[in-house]
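Typical record is below.
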Amino acid sequence: MTRVLLVDDDTNLSSMLAEYLVQDGFEVHCVEDGADGVQEALSGRHSIIVLDVMMPGMNGVEVLRRIRAKSRIPVLMLTARGDDVDRIIGLELGADDYVAKPCTPRELAARLKAILRRVESGGGQRNLSEPVEAGQLRIWPERRVAEWGGCALELTGTEYNLLEVLTRNAGRVVSKNELSEQALGRPLVRFDRCIDVHVSSIRHKLPDRSDGQSWIRTVRGMGYQLIRE
């Protein structure tokens, strides 16, 4: 059974979400403050974390920062509707996705399943044991490992998914909707900057080209392209 850690000081909301998730086949453990959230997240007992941004004391952004310093466990952030600042900061720190509050339990469950599908399936591609290569970039889907010039890249689960899709399509422009469907497991939502923030993070983890430009090219109005050497 998939174990979900729900970190939120709103006990009424947590109880409601937990009840639905349990009925949907998840096992849920709730904690009400950030410090306990960090401890539980790093315990190894959970498959995925649902983390509220707005909590007293240690907020969700700091909790995520501490988790990402030691773990790549998938994290879905709960953010205030329309609060782009917290949302973008969370993604930049390595959150896999976010849901705006108030959210329906059904939407939350669907997002959790989408993230877990991507992690567990290794991208859902065939020939998982064979590396996928584009220049100095090499990816092993079976192990979900990416290397540049023989050096491992430290990627979150969602960053890995995006980079795998771009690598498999190196030289071709991949639309944001295609990236969202294949890497996040959900259709692209209007005004959703999740893909842009994750791609920006990946760019910072790759070396620059000889001309100082990024290996991932933005094609305005279309999507992104991984440049072939």
User: Anything to note?
Assistant: Helices lie at 11-23, 34-41, 60-68, 84-92, 105-121, 157-168, 176-184, 194-205. Confidence is low (pLDDT under 50) at residues 123-127. Residues 105-121 form the longest helix (17 residues).
